[in-house]
Design goal:
Blueprint (H helix, E strand, L loop, with lengths): L4 E5 L4 H12 L3 E6 L2 H13 L5 E4 L5 H11 L7 E4 L17 H16 L1 H6 L3 E6 L22 H23 L4 E7 L13 H10 L6 H4 L1 H8 L10 E3 L2 E3 L8 H15 L10
Parallel strand pairs: 1-2, 1-4, 2-3, 4-5, 5-6, 6-7
Antiparallel strand pairs: 7-8
Helix pairs in contact: 3-4, 4-6, 6-10
Length: 283
């Protein structure tokens, strides 16, 4: 992979940082995307000390304006060979972004949907290229209602997170269908239970559960293994639309295999992010 360009969101800590470091060791040009400049500069310095030449991009993916600006900056790259949509959030309470979106739905689904869509011409310009979106087995607990995807009624922390992870898989399936014949593949990965900063903003009972489980969790490096497999292995060079766990393609939940819902979610996401004008009511 020497010389290939790899973009990793949520790359300043945890799984994203471990993924970026592993890609850099293979000789790739890594672009780190993070929200916090301090952590971003520290992560970039670590890679530089190991002999890499990372590029750092700061963007708050809760803001669709910042996602669009990020896409413009990434568009100046000569090419993008791998895009890893890793940034994610689990919140303890419902927060609404400046765009009027539930923050969990915005960061976990709308941001990767919009960023990937805006980078499509760059990805398809010089194939092959790979898009990997980090999801979770939590999707099996989802109850996604596309008439209320942001849970304006009945918001719960776990449900909001599970719904967003289901959305990741539905997005991947529909994106793979649309990408057919372009040389670009789209897959998603469940990294397992990993010791990261993830979940630190949740309420006390969940935080306590995470702390109790920490000794049994995977390291970020092990959590990055399936992501790296999808990003680099020749074994999956032509595989697309898959859900992978421990390097194996697995069947996700029945809801995650609903192609009609995947298409409807895609249309809704286009409207919410402004990629297409909203349709009149009743159409």
């Amino acid at each position: 992979m020497n010389g290939e360009v790899c973009v990793v969101t949520g790359a300043t800590s945890g799984i994203g940082k471990a993924t970026a470091a592993a890609l850099a060791r293979l000789g790739t040009q890594v672009v780190l995307v993070g929200r916090d400049r301090g952590r971003g500069e520290a992560a970039a310095a670590e890679l530089a000390a190991a002999g890499a030449s990372p590029r750092l991009e700061i963007a708050d993916l809760a803001s669709m304006e910042q996602v669009r600006a990020l896409a413009v900056r990434l568009g100046t790259l000569g090419r993008i060979d791998v895009l890893v949509n890793n940034a994610g959030l689990m919140a303890g309470q419902r927060r609404v972004t400046a765009d009027g979106f539930d923050e969990v739905f915005a960061v976990n689904h709308l941001a990767p949907f919009l960023l990937t869509s805006l980078l499509l011409s760059k990805l398809t310009a010089d194939p092959p290229a790979r898009v990997i979106t980090v999801t979770s087995d939590a999707h099996t607990a989802a109850r996604l209602d596309l008439d209320d995807p942001q849970l304006k009624h009945g918001w719960e922390s776990w449900r909001a997170y599970a719904n967003s992870k289901l959305a990741n898989i539905l997005f991947t399936r529909e994106f793979a269908r649309r990408l057919k014949g372009t040389g670009v593949t789209a897959n998603c990965a469940h990294p397992g239970m990993v010791r990261t900063r993830f979940g630190r903003e949740t309420r006390l009972p969940m935080r306590a559960g995470v702390m109790l489980a920490r000794p049994f969790m995977l390291s970020p490096q092990r959590g990055a293994d399936t992501i790296m497999y999808l990003a680099t292995s020749p074994e999956v060079a032509g595989e697309t639309g898959g859900y992978y766990v421990k390097r194996q393609r697995r069947e996700p939940s029945q809801a995650a295999r609903d192609d009609a819902t995947a298409r409807r979610l895609w249309q809704l996401s286009e409207e919410m992010t402004g990629l297409t004008p909203a349709r009149p009511a009743g159409t």
